[in-house]
Amino acid sequence: MNQEKCVRHIVYGALLCMMLTACRTGETTNNKPITITATDQVDSTATGDVEASATPTIVKTVSAATPSPRLPTADPGAPLAENGPWLVFVTDAQDNGSDKTLWIANPDGTGLTQLTDKEDLAIPSNPESLQRVVSPSGDHLAYIASYEEPVLHILSLPGGEDRTVPLTIESTRPKRELNDTDYYATTHPLRSVTDPDSIAWSPDGHYLAFVGAQDGPSSDLYLYSVADGSVTRLTSGPTQACHPTWSPDGQYIIHAGEGEVDAPQGANMIEGVWAARLDGSDTKLLYHPQDSIREWFAGWIDTHTFLAYSVDSTGGLGSLRVVDMNTGQSQSVWSGRLSEYSIGGPAIMALDPGSGMVLISIDPYTPDTLPPGMYLANVNGGDPLHISDQDASKVWLPEPGTFYTVYAATKDGTVAKVLPTGEVLEITPPFQRAMPLFSPDGQFWAWYGAGLAIGPLSQGVPSGVIMPDISVDQAAWSPDGQFLAFLSKTKLYVTTYPGTDTRQLMHDLKEKFRDIAWASP
After folding, report:
1. What is the pTM of this model?
2. Among 82, 99, 77, 92, which residue's Cα sits nearest to residue 159?
3. Could you give the maximum distance between any two Cα atoms of the chain, in Å?
């Protein structure tokens, strides 16, 4: 062994010893930092099979890019850092996930703080949506607790004041003694209020739009101000407000209104889509959808023009159109059906505002007159362009003018880079069924699935694989792109590029890790 290798092994061994000797166990206290067992660092020279508590294998990734800072040596007694970044995640103690707990910690796992008790939480159930509970300014979290008497919580970070807003009154809470018809009527506002998509932060993080039924008899759109804690009612009417989303300039909140039951399986029909002004001075009807039980707002082309599509009374997705908020006029972009990402989920599509192109994937099981595959449509009109016979299971948009999509249906599991011109460039992933995840600054990408690989986007697909012996289910970059958190069979890890500093976090936590997000002021 030459001198350079010897020194490197001594350094890695010393770091591992420091981590192991720092271990000690503490106790859990709600809303206070928890002293935990220090996290394990994964040695880059480790080999062998990966089982429950075994050390995963590491294969080094060599790159000329400047690596992110290494994770600091974990101090089990360290509090939450004042300025972040912080890792936010959800756990549950049961397989059905009915009792969820929201946590926050430093990237190295220290400062673990329990934000909620085990209870029903109306929070999104996937990592992309969980990030929405964090304000864009990174200094607040918002979540809804309890389904029987729901309360909106707005918590300042790290671990500061918890402001609450009751979302119902006696008349809008369910009454168990009523017959089925009357009980359904009383739960209608409650269902709208507790939908995970019933809250939305403004682009600057200064306001939170939410749905509440505290003024009865129906649910309406409200606005919470972070600056002074004030609550303003923006709309009123017989329909149930639902699914608020902000315009890019933060001046308007688009939302739908549910009417009475008039569809199979007790679904509620959407009677209209409105735009409410931030200052409460104006609320205008944009359009009446036809045969819709849900309106999905798929993205913004500019500050007043957005893309939307409907879920009809049979559960099918379609009627993709662009809507001008100023005039209320709409134009069809795709008249056929759309494939859904998951049952009840959004469509498999992506909008590139820069080019006005929309990437659409149609699977063989979606009823349509067009053959399955990928298409490019234009928000300005024209016939869709059939660019591939292969359909996609998911799409990514890392930068304007560039699409990335993974082919779940192909035998070789390839990935395609789709240009706005319709050109499809095939990319070979570092391992089977790999999915790319782009860092916020667009400099790095991580590939996860049957392993994990990280590398600079400028250098192409990473040649080395980190942890090739484990399956990675979820991954999320920190806002500054320095850290990558990922889940593997309910185990939580954090790594930095190039992946030689990888740690399993909070392995003594008895609950199961579910979803992950980041916060940073």
Report:
1. 0.82
2. 82
3. 81
